[in-house]
Amino acid sequence: MNRLIGKSLTRRGVLGAGLATAGMLAMPSILRAQDKSLKVGVYGGYFKKSFDEHVFPDFTKATGIAVESVAEPTGEAWLVQLEQAAKAGQAPADLSMMSQGSTIKGQSTELWTPLDTSKFKHYNDLLPRFVNKYPDGRVAGIGAVAWWITLVTNTDAYKEAPTSWEALWDKANEDKLGLLALASNSFLLEVTAKTFMGGTNALDTEDGLNKAFEKLAEVKPNVRLWYRDEAQFEQALKSGEIPMGQYYHDVTGLAAADGFHVRSTFPKEGGIQDSGNWVLSRASTKVDEAHAFIDYMSQPSMQGLMSRKVGTTPTLKKEVLDLKPEEFAAVSSDIEPIIPRYDLYTSKADWINQKWTELIVG
Amino acid sequence: MRREAPKSVADYTPLFFPALMLIVFFVVPFSTMIAVSFFKRNPSGFYTPDFVFDNYARFLSVFFGGVLGFSLMLAVLVAVCCVAIAFPFTYLLTRRPRHVQTLWLVGLLSVLSLSEVIIGFAWSTLFSRTAGITNLFVAIGLMDKPVALLPTFGAVLTGMVYQALPYTILVLYPALVRLDPTLLEAARTLGASPVRAFFNVVAPALRNTIVATLIMVFVFALGSYLLPQILGRPQHWTLSVLITDQAIYQSNMPFGAAMAVFLVLISLALVGMTLLVGRKENAL
Lengths: 362, 284
Prior knowledge:
The structure holds two protein chains of two kinds. By secondary structure, chain A is of the alpha/beta class. Chain A has two domains: 2-146 and 274-331, D-Maltodextrin-Binding Protein, domain 2; 148-272 and 337-361, Periplasmic binding protein-like II (D-Maltodextrin-Binding Protein, domain 2, 3-Layer(aba) Sandwich), CATH 3.40.190. Chain A is 43% helix and 19% strand. Chain A is built from 16 helices and ten strands. In chain A, strands 1, 2, 3, 4, 5, 6, 7, 8, 9 and 10 form a ten-stranded mixed sheet that branches. The longest helix of chain A is centred in the first third of the chain and has 21 residues, at 13-33. Chain A is globular. The two termini of chain A are 26 Å apart. By secondary structure, chain B is mostly helical. Chain B has a single domain (36-283), classed as MetI-like fold, CATH 1.10.3720. Helix content of chain B is 73%, strand content 1%. In chain B, helix 12 runs antiparallel to helix 13. The longest helix of chain B is centred in the first third of the chain and has 33 residues, at 62-94. Chain B is globular, with a radius of gyration of 23 Å. Chains A and B meet through helix 5, helix 6, strand 7, helix 10 and helix 16 of A and helix 12 of B.
């Protein structure tokens, strides 16, 4: 989730800070006017600003529930804070936006209040991959926002768009790639498995994982930059210094719209789809309000609005959305996505991290 | 005037404030870190208070040994380069008129206001193929076409030396300014060339200052984690980069803490050894 910090700092930070401050100053008056309220944690920066502007005021108008938005830190720090607060019976936020990995980790201590899906009118319209369940089937989280990591290129250096993730392995691209530096945010093991091993199920066994690592090692000579901070790669991609790599579809689209010579391509094996959930802390007493909020956010009209205003990918089936084809194409693709194997990053986290670090550093 | 030995508790009061600061800002955080380094890691995201050696055991491997070795080597190299550049520079600076010195020192102080991030990105632009200094070389006919000078070890070293150099000069300056000019005059009178006088008289007279500066820059460079990422390849990542990975991205606080404790202990040992060697040689 480093990307959201980077995004807010690089592109819209200066404007955003001003607007976010204005939003916060306006908040107490809304709070006073309402009896019911809900604290919602969203990633600080660009997301919080967009939600304060486009989402929360209308929700309060529609339901009479006041929203106090809380800026979450990214990474796993917020999960740790929620867990420690819950032990003391406190909830710094009732609902939070939580990455898939952190949602699964929170399950281990029953941190999330199971959600009553009968209260969500559009529950059946949600794509199944956006419902995060406890092992026994109770629902721990509902998809809040989704985004894509795709194959990006500088259009001056590559006249033709690449069509497959295989381009990363192409010997012609020696020392030309920028890739994310961690197994758990680059999802390159999944890409390797989908491209060369028939699908991400190949990663079920340790043997399969080892094979994927072996195949991935062949990419190393092509990589110029393993980045943690997105600003680092974005700059190099725009200037053509590092002309190819993996990056966020939405940000690349915005850069292209601003006139930079970059493009984002959905490879034939699919883009990587990552997402965040709404989760409800077990220490929260605002269960009804939280359900009302998730219900509101899961409406097709809201999902459409988020795609147009915030640039996120809808969590609902395409048929129920009111997005025009070109609007849908701007934020998604019909090609079956590569869904990260989040389970691996909890069950085998340290083993994978160790092998990964040795692979790229060694 | 003879200084009286402190007799009552009241005589010790001037010590209380520094002691309190030391406890609050060093002893407490460092003890917490040591405690956490023995906690048990729960792969599903948290850790539980315990007393296990797993975190240290994981660190004791050829791989991490290599990373630690590289980090130490890099820090030593940065320290040596900084002192090698800064010592003659500061010496020559102290020979200049007062207002020239002030101007230089103000300039150096303003460099300190740059953060590691700005320094990193500035150098990455300077070393880039598309906008870097090699374009200048092409323009004046020194090179055929622009090339990228990063990511390389040289780029990392340049960035880190650039970052530490102002500190080095500011630490060396007071000692060099106070150096008795008659020492040098005596050497010149006895027939030594300026260069010879510099190496045979000035440098040995300031041995302790030089050693102290080396140690300071070494410790300063050891904590660097941004410049190796921006200017180097993964082989050039320091242990601090891997500690950040564990603490922030893997939420593996116990392992991150164990690595940090190890790094502190090793650097303390190295500093201690340097001081010990220095004292022995002085005694001879």
